[in-house]
Design goal:
alpha+beta; 7 helices; about 375 residues; single chain; elongated
């Protein structure tokens, strides 16, 4: 449908958000999957995340069956008068040196047999040593973590010369509107790429958002050039499970480029895939059934050809800065040409990065 642009529209902002969402979903599958969330009020959008204290770590350096000083990778889970387990042996923690990440322990606790400890062995907290009539234990507190992202501006200009407007354009009834639609598609694709590939950057008036790849730091698997397998996906899902990612349900999808979508299609017959009956919003997808649930497969060629994401869409949002959702502003005739702009300012909210996973370095 053509639109009439006149002097009454000069400088007036017109929202084009609905038009953005109706653009080709194969170009912007992430935007079409998530839509746009509620507006944020600051150019640095911050949120706070909380999690329970971890209940396990690993040993740094092998120990004999008589050593009573154990260095661990992370001392946070441990405190005095706590019973821990390494292999089949129980140990009583009597002191914790958080600076040097060292536990002082009593070996062979509760009649268990002390044994040599291998480097990298798991140290798992069992429970505190309960004692009748004891005083209250010292409290411990894990502060909430502040996480933030920046808003990023996406803009482009429409400019049509007087000659171009005068000449009949084959198949185009309104050249200005035609060019505006193209700019919207280009900007939506830029937003899609930033939400996936963006790196946090702030240089005064220039801001760039952090994308999904940059956010996922914990559950990252390097395939080292091997072909994608169902085991890799299950292992990544298990990593999310062990961090508590599935505890609140979630809406998990596997996001893949075309190359890895073909790799999934070549999995053997023991891998169950069901054809999706309702491809709402236009994303053609299958499902991968794992030990940890059924994940929709979303094709997205804005990922690297050698990677795969497992993400919970309930923990991700693309949010505009207030009054800066994609809009068009008609600037009118300026000399022998007509000009307008399309502008939007958005950020990516990506909560609890441990609840997501990435596989990289795939063949």
């Amino acid at each position: 449908m053509s639109k009439i642009y006149n002097k009454d529209l000069i400088g007036v902002k017109q929202s084009v958000v609905d038009e953005i969402l109706l653009l080709n979903p194969h170009q912007t599958p992430l935007i079409n999957l998530l839509g746009f969330g509620e507006a944020v009020t600051q150019v640095e959008h911050a949120w706070f995340e909380d999690e329970l204290v971890s209940y396990e770590s690993t040993v740094n350096g092998a120990k004999t069956d008589s050593d009573t000083s154990i260095v661990v990778a992370d001392a946070e889970p441990f405190r005095a008068n706590q019973v821990v387990k390494i292999g089949e042996e129980l140990l009583l923690v009597t002191a914790v040196d958080s600076v040097n990440k060292t536990l002082t322990v009593v070996r062979g606790y509760a009649g268990t047999t002390a044994a040599a400890i291998a480097d990298g062995a798991k140290v798992e907290v069992m429970f505190v040593e309960g004692q009748e009539g004891r005083d209250a234990r010292d409290a411990r507190f894990k502060a909430r973590k502040r996480v933030s992202n920046l808003t990023q501006i996406f803009d482009d200009t429409i400019e049509i010369s007087g000659t171009a407007q005068a000449v009949t354009q084959y198949g185009v009834s309104d050249l200005y509107e035609y060019e505006k639609q193209k700019k919207q598609l280009e900007l939506a694709l830029q937003l899609e790429k930033a939400a996936i590939n963006g790196i946090y950057f702030d240089n005064g008036n220039i801001r760039q958002m952090r994308g999904i790849r940059s956010f996922i730091q914990t559950n990252v698997t390097n395939a080292n050039g091997e072909a994608l397998t169902d085991k890799m996906i299950n292992d990544a899902a298990q990593a999310i499970y062990e961090k508590g990612g599935f505890a609140s349900g979630g809406n998990y999808v596997i996001m893949v480029p075309a190359k890895q979508k073909r790799a999934i299609s070549q999995f053997n017959s023991s891998d169950i895939r069901l054809e999706r009956q309702d491809n709402g919003r236009g994303s053609v997808a299958d499902y991968f059934v794992s030990d940890f649930g059924r994940f929709e497969i979303v094709l997205n060629n804005n990922l690297g050809a050698d990677e795969l994401f497992i993400v919970d869409t309930n923990r991700i949002a693309i949010r505009p800065l207030q009054d800066r959702a994609f809009f068009h502003k008609y600037m009118g005739e300026q000399g022998d040409y007509t000009r307008g702009i399309v502008v939007g300012e958005y950020t990516l909210e990506f909560r609890q990065e441990k609840a997501h996973a990435r596989i990289k370095g795939l063949a």
